[in-house]
Please model this.
Amino acid sequence: MSRLSGEGRRVTAEDDLGLFGPGSVTWRVHDEPILVVAGLRSLYLQALHPRAIAGVVQNSSYRSDPFGRLTRTSTYVATTVWGTTAEADAAAARIRRLHARLRATDPSTGTEFRVDEPDLLRWVHVAEVESFLDTATRAGLRLTPAEVDRYYAEQRRSAALVGLDPDSVPGSAADVDAYYRAVRPDLRMTREAADTALFLTAPPVPGQLSLPWRLGLGFGPPRLAYLGVAATAIGLLPAWARRMYGGLGLPTTDRCAAVAARGLRLALRAVPRNLVEGPIRAAARDRAERATAPVTPAAYAAAVVP
Model:
């Protein structure tokens, strides 16, 4: 049976708006198709942490199944942002169970460590959410400084899902800047980081495809388009991260990357929504529309009469 909210809206179990909802900055940021570039940027950034990338390389199937891993990661992020509270909790519980079983060896010391150590989870979280926000705003999404801070504060809920203490996670732009300054001495270019960056920039073409498709994806326009996206993701990295990869940390690089991101954002926003909007996002939009729809007399009667 449904009920009515204090504002007279219909509320059912299926109308749960999840961890954030339509009034959140998170929904505004993650409604941007340009975040496909942000995801790639975050992977380049995360690879600069030696223990974090060691945990990925030693436990992940990203080399043998890169597209499958990308799909699973994208689905998880979409579920935590757009799914119901129950869906987000269930997805996070699966991730916590998986991470709790995984171990890796530190390439420098040879010591074994858990991949769900708080320091590693915090690094992955901050690199990811900062990449989402930075890419979206530099591509043209307008947010006030207060909204930027609100996004980081909201994303503490996502951090809690993977087992972090929300109070230990940066909750504002100033906190993120301070965190990066504190963690930078631990970051460096390693063989694993270089190999991962090369893999991200020129991923292999799936071998099960027919020869024409393999040639097209390997040497044709799709490959060139992807290289452009990868170059934009690298250009959007913080200047200090680009320098670690051997690139230039010049202001002109920042400006060129921002121009490229703005052009790509305009192109993606011209694509029909049904082609870029996944089913999880579409379901969230439907729930939000139901939650804010006016209540008719018939609906009111159905809600209050057992």
